[in-house]
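Table S5 (text form). Sequence records supplied for joint modeling of the two-component complex.
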Amino acid sequence: MIDSRPQVISTRLAGVKRIVAVSSGKGGVGKSMIATALALSLAKEGCRVGLFDVDFTGPSTHIILGVPNSVQPTEDKGIVPATIEGLEFMSLVYFVGDKATPLRGADVSNALIELLSVTQWGQLDFLIIDMPPGIGDAVLDLVRLVKRIEFLIVTTTSLLAFEVVKKQVQLLHELKMPIVGVIENMKIDTSKTIEQETGKLGAKYLGSVAYDPQVEAAIGKPSKLLNTAVGKTIDLLKKAEKEPRK
Amino acid sequence: MSEVTIRVGALQQVEPPILRFALKQMGDGIFKTTKFRILKAKSTLKCRVCATTWQYNQKKLDKATAEAIHFVPEVAHSYVKCPKCSSPDFEIASGRGVWLEDIKGVKNE
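The corresponding structure-token record, covering 355 residues in total, follows.
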């Protein structure tokens, strides 16, 4: 028995210039907020952007974007994502609505391969992928199937988050996968610990995003989100791009 | 390439005429004289909790649900439950998607 789906994935992504997975070893660090804000900011600057939510068992980017239940992708030689706030948006919620989606590892892999092989992204400057927490199926499958993927790692100041992030960075180094850098999210103090520890790992510390209580009120209101601290994430990446590579 | 056998699982409900049309789009080339056999396969689900096995029956679902499962078969876990214990924790034991079962032809050395 031959599964022909993986063969078509590179064709489906051929028109995408950069593929960035917003990822973290730990949950609850704000990956979805960072991913959505980054995608919205890039689109606002005139880039063609896709946002792909692969946190199948706990999707939330549709809530952040305020996607109405009635919105659906269209079918044309595959699935064409709906355009939400200027983003080509794909999520499993199109197919499950508000229902729970209890998936084991093999099912997560199969659903991811299915969506990668049927989604028609077209021409994009960026495809931002909102990852599930951890270094399990989604990370391993994307490393295996999307060779030019880059990882943007999110942590909080808490060592509980960073200790797991460290393992993720080490793994990605071992797999020789490019890491855009590490963002310290929801920062509430002036500690330099995460910056110093990130440097020791051989990864770039992109900077911090301050804890902003206005972020919660901006859920479902994309324009408001860009006016919060998380909406400035793109500035960290722009600054990093300007700095000379070590 | 003399013969290609393709299996279509009940869970994904790919229509054989549509698949046959798609295969025609591949053009002549090495498939000029190929006979495509498209065979259906029942989809068997097995409960991981009570080990009950049963067959997926699309007719028990509404059109929108069947369509969602057609696009991504794994979303069946959101809609289908074990008929004995009602658990959504089941394995798609067979008949998930579309797969190449057999290829016959002459190897070009």
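Note: The longest helix of chain B spans residues 16-24.
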